[in-house]
Amino acid sequence: MSGDSPAWVNLHELADAAGPKLSAQAAAYFNGGAGDEHTLAANPADWQRLHLWPRTLAPLDGSHTRTMIGPNAVAHPIWLAPVAYQQLAHPEGEVATAMAAAAQSAGMVLSSQSSVAVEDVANAMRTVADPAGDVAPLWFQLYWQPDRALTLNLIQRAEAAGCSALVLTVDAPVHGVRDCERRAGFSLPAGVRAVHLPHGVAQASTLAPLLQAAPTWHDLNWLREHTRLPIWLKGVLHPADAALARTAGMDGLIVSNHGGRTLDTCVSTAWALPRVADAVQGELPLLVDGGIRRGTDVLKAVALGAQGVLIGRPQVHALACGGALGVARMIRLLRDELAVAMALCGCSDLRHANRDLLA
């Protein structure tokens, strides 16, 4: 792992430090949101609006951040969200991110639009061992393809590479209206592409072909029949959809609004999470992403019913600032902030974090 130590002490400063490191087009792609960016702004703001209600004089000896995410016993609940085209931020792209995740025992969800092949990312994670011996799971995020043969190929590659779960994104049958990208005239530079997808795939000029190919609840049966991996749905915000996912036999849900990049003015994830948690009644594990920038946000997410969180934009900001070392530092910073927040709330074990922690 290589890279200069970034001059930042929190994720807000990290975002500022990444600005000069990213090209104007890369910044538009990674940082922009849909429409007027109301949802993009609401995601972090709604975590901040939640107030912790600490307890005192609780026994804290032996405090730790260990928890469960699905069937995985993990060192902490901070994982990396799927982010496409990471070579826009650093030449090593997803390989550097994977090495950092492995070094910090953070699970990683690799985008199907990764700029590095899943086989190389999996190998990178295997080459780095956490000193404590903790395992960093690698999951594969799947965009449903119009050609089922291509979808099946992605599934089989993920399985063969050693990924331990599939994450089907269900909230983006079409791209959001992203003014920032359009204003910048965003296009991928030479040498950066979605390596899992064929060269020269024609882009639909109208919505009709995309809508025709969009997956439905019925397609989940086909997906279940063609993989041995657990299936998580990413992009669930409504309790009714959470209930349908439970009926459909899904293995977990990720409460997400695509980082505010698809539907503007939709609900924030902090607002949606407790409602989804109430709908599944503990029968499905939950992750959440969107606007999480502090260890206190992580604790709030767990208190509201999530087993863990996914970090999106800050991982590419850290990647741009310091390569693998930058991403590792970002993960460790959040984990340390979480440990401090737990201690100050009288919570020695995340199993004890519940809504009583929130005002």
Automatic annotation (TrEMBL):
The protein's required cofactors: FMN
Keyword Transit peptide appears in the UniProt entry: no
Stated name of the protein: Alpha-hydroxy acid oxidase
Protein family (similarity comment): Belongs to the FMN-dependent alpha-hydroxy acid dehydrogenase family.
CDD domains: alpha_hydroxyacid_oxid_FMN
Signal peptide boundaries: none
This protein's UniProt keywords: Flavoprotein, FMN, Oxidoreductase
Species in which this protein is naturally found: Ideonella margarita
